[in-house]
Structures are given as structure tokens and as C-alpha cells.
């Protein structure tokens, strides 16, 4: 019976070690995606398979980092976490985190103003951009791009309704 406990403890320790390494590896992927996002660089390439000469910025950068990072080197081939659906999910989580920080700052400000602009995107759909401008307690002024929304119409009334919906989504009065 003692042997079974020792085996179970050993398996548990091994599982915890592997989970910890996987978390650290995922942090490295997130750090790499964040760098590419800050530099406004595309993550993916045209073809990302092993035969491709250019697998896209994320995979190529992880490959480069694997020369200096043993964790990335050991995990990149077996445990990728680099599928486009995971990349999209990580980008969405980063977006939500940044947006919630911006909204917190806006709510801390006494006043804020909005700027909306509409344009036609590449697929000929009307889209509206929203920028919010506010100042902190030391009167440092910030302008934060919030995002794009498709507009069904660009009349004043339609844009106002879009703005009200947007502000409700952000929980801004």
C-alpha cells in the first residue's frame, strides 16, 4: 500500500512539474504575441507547415527564440499552443484586458469626450471608429482608440444610436 502512495505522489509531482512548464511556455508565447501586436505585425504567414520557408512572424520568432530559450526549444515541436484559434483567443483576451484598463482610466477621469469618424473599409462596408479623450488628475491628456464598429447607416441618428450602444457596452455614462 505504501508503494502505491509513493507512485501516486511521484505521478502527481511529475504532473505538477509539467503543468508549471506548460504555463511558463504559454507565457513565452503570450510575450511573443504581445511584441508582434505592439509592432503591428501580422502573426501568421501564408503557409505554416514544416515545408514552408516562411511560417509567419509568430512561428519564425518562436523558432529564433528557441536558440536562446531551452523551454521554447523543448516545447515548440511537441506542445505548440500556436494554432490560429489559440492565437485569436489570446489576442481577444489581451484586447479585453487592455480595454478594461482603458475604461477604468476613463471612469477615473472627471470628464471625457468622444471622437467618431466613419469610413468605408476594403469590403465597402461603412465602419465607425471611436476614440475617447480624457485627462487624469495631473491634467495629462490621453486619447485612446477604442475600436471599429460596422455602421448600417451614417445618418446622424444612426451614428448616435451606435454611440449610445457602444458606450453601454463599455459601461460608460
Order of helices and strands: HHHHEEEH
Broad shape:
elongated
What low-confidence regions span 5 or more consecutive residues with pLDDT below 50?
none
Count of DSSP strands: 3
User: What proportion of the residues form beta strands (DSSP E)?
Assistant: 15-25%
Continuous helix count: 5
Estimated radius of gyration? 23 Å
Structural domain tally = 2
Q: Mean of residue pLDDT?
A: 88
Termini separation comes to: 64 Å
By helix and strand content, what is the structural category? Answer: alpha+beta
Could you give the order of strands across the largest sheet?
1-2-3
Helicity, as a percent range: 40-55%
Most strands sheet: 3 strands, antiparallel
Give the SSE map.
Layout: H1 2-38, H2 57-65, H3 70-76, H4 84-108, E1 112-120, E2 126-135, E3 141-150, H5 156-170
Antiparallel strand pairs: 1-2, 2-3
Helix pairs in contact: 1-2, 1-4
Pfam family, one: DUF4371
Protein name: DUF4371 domain-containing protein
Domain DUF4371: 7-155
Describe the structure.
By secondary structure, the chain is an alpha+beta fold. The protein folds into two domains: 4-82, no CATH class; 102-170, Nuclear Transport Factor 2, Chain: A. The chain has five helices and three strands. A three-stranded antiparallel beta sheet has the order 1-2-3, with helices on one face. The N and C termini lie far apart (64 Å).
Amino acid at each position: 500500500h505504501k508503494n502505491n502512495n509513493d507512485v501516486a505522489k511521484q505521478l502527481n509531482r511529475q504532473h505538477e512539474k509539467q503543468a508549471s512548464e506548460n504555463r511558463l511556455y504559454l507565457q513565452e508565447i503570450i510575450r511573443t504575441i504581445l511584441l508582434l501586436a505592439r509592432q503591428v505585425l501580422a502573426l501568421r504567414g501564408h503557409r505554416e507547415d514544416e515545408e514552408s520557408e516562411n511560417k509567419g512572424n509568430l512561428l519564425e520568432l518562436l523558432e529564433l527564440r528557441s536558440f536562446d530559450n531551452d523551454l521554447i526549444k523543448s516545447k515548440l515541436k511537441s506542445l505548440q499552443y500556436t494554432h490560429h484559434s489559440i492565437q485569436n483567443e489570446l489576442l481577444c483576451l489581451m484586447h479585453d484586458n487592455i480595454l478594461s484598463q482603458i475604461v477604468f482610466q476613463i471612469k477615473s477621469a472627471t470628464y471625457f469626450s468622444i471622437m467618431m469618424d466613419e469610413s468605408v473599409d476594403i469590403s465597402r462596408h461603412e465602419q465607425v471608429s471611436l476614440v475617447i479623450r480624457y485627462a487624469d488628475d495631473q491634467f495629462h491628456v490621453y486619447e485612446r482608440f477604442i475600436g471599429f464598429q460596422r455602421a448600417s447607416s451614417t445618418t446622424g441618428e444612426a451614428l448616435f444610436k451606435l454611440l449610445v450602444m457602444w458606450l453601454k457596452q463599455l459601461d460608460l455614462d
